[in-house]
Predict the structure of HTH cro/C1-type domain-containing protein.
Amino acid sequence: MSRKIIFYENHFIEFYQKQDQKVKGKIQYVFELIQQVDRVPKKFLDHITGTDGLYEIRVEYQSNIYRIFCCFDKGQLVVLFNGFQKKTQKTPQNEIDKAVQLMNRYFSKKNKKMKDYKDIQSFDELIELEHGKIGTESRNKYEEGAQMFIISEMLKSARKEANMTQEQLADKSGTKKSYISKLENAKGNIQLSTLIRIFEQGLNRKIGLTFL
């Protein structure tokens, strides 16, 4: 699965620039998950009830919830609109209305060929700006962290779907509960053979490798 995230106008960037570095980092990791994972868990991406194609990206950090509205264009293109911070689960109607207006404007301009695609700002450009070009030390560090985050969330989601505790999964896959806990919290070193055993032996799931 390979999606691409782009920004419509400057609404997301204005929201993003107001956040501190730790929140920005969590937003980036969630975006990486959305770009790379086929079935994105609803805790990160969910349809807004009562709208025609509007979705909400949810980023949780400490006790805060950061929400970013988006839609899909041609299946794999994710278009970002406005974002906001909210501690409660309920999404304010005025923010939804604003996002719907932006979504309608995006498609209206696109259909009229008024949008200059050369000027589109994308998530890829943002990552290159903040973490450097592919192959640099800072970019490698970011990508390692992003992959660790994705693995931890997919493992946690698969374990919960299987109705297993960390201890049960550890016993079934021949490893320790502490190792499962570290993986689910994106900590520690990942051993590929152990990871495969956890998914295939412990969870009866197949995992694939992609070499870029």
